[in-house]
């Protein structure tokens, strides 16, 4: 069996779909199954059992460890505007520590979700060199909670026999419709253009960047899933890895790709960045991806225009 936490979520449900397509149908889906919209992500998937997040460790203790092939721990509180430190510590840091210790005790390989939010404003760059992790300065409590676990993991003498922490950059693609404000700009653009024929982007409040030329490393969810499954089979070179496309692109590039895919005439305007996120806004992110490639990862990443087009076509179905 393969265990996937956060199973009803965006990345995890895409992962389960791909696992199913490769013949892995004994999937244990772990989540807090209290969101009917989010739970729709699981309706077309082959799952052996659903386990509530709060009782997962008790459930795991009753299993034959030899039957657990892998754990993908993707469940977390991912809202970057969440400021309740206690909730983030409980769900993102402490829960993952418990998962780590169980994987050691039961000899189960582990992949867990870190985040590019750990890099803050990128003062130290976006290099997944583990020696730099203690010096990173995340901008929000979510990023802090993820970085705290990364730091803790690197300090441990006892580790799962194989483990990888993945710093997800700006992931986009199908099955994110439930995420509200935290959904990708592509989904927001598709909805806004469908309703109004126009798209409003955040104005730049940084003199080094023109309006719409803020840059992000946008990575297609299919590529993210492909990396995770490759690592599951590879099971060597434990450590913390960036997971982006390796190529920063502007929000204007992204929105123009959405207009083109929707076959609509471009109509783009700008509004002020909300005050509650303005002083914590990243103007540039770009994953250094050499580390993953040096361990043998063989696949290219989808370019933004191709990824946007594939996503838009799926939304139209």
UniProtKB/TrEMBL annotation:
The active site is at 142 (proton acceptor), 179 (proton acceptor). GO terms for biological process: ADP-L-glycero-beta-D-manno-heptose biosynthetic process; carbohydrate metabolic process. Binds 1 NADP(+) per subunit. One of its GO terms (molecular function) is NADP binding. Its EC number is 5.1.3.20. The keyword Translocase does not apply. Keywords: Carbohydrate metabolism, Isomerase, NADP. It is an enzyme of class 5 (isomerase). Its cofactor is NADP(+). Substrate binds at residues 170, 181, 188, 202-205, 216, 281. It catalyses: ADP-D-glycero-beta-D-manno-heptose = ADP-L-glycero-beta-D-manno-heptose. NADP(+) binds at residues 10-11, 31-32, 38, 53, 74-78, 146, 171, 179. Residues 2-244 form the NAD-dependent epimerase/dehydratase domain. It comes from the Bacteria. Pathway: Nucleotide-sugar biosynthesis; ADP-L-glycero-beta-D-manno-heptose biosynthesis; ADP-L-glycero-beta-D-manno-heptose from D-glycero-beta-D-manno-heptose 7-phosphate: step 4/4. Catalyzes the interconversion between ADP-D-glycero-beta-D-manno-heptose and ADP-L-glycero-beta-D-manno-heptose via an epimerization at carbon 6 of the heptose. Belongs to the NAD(P)-dependent epimerase/dehydratase family. HldD subfamily. Contains a large N-terminal NADP-binding domain, and a smaller C-terminal substrate-binding domain. Homopentamer. This is ADP-L-glycero-D-manno-heptose-6-epimerase.
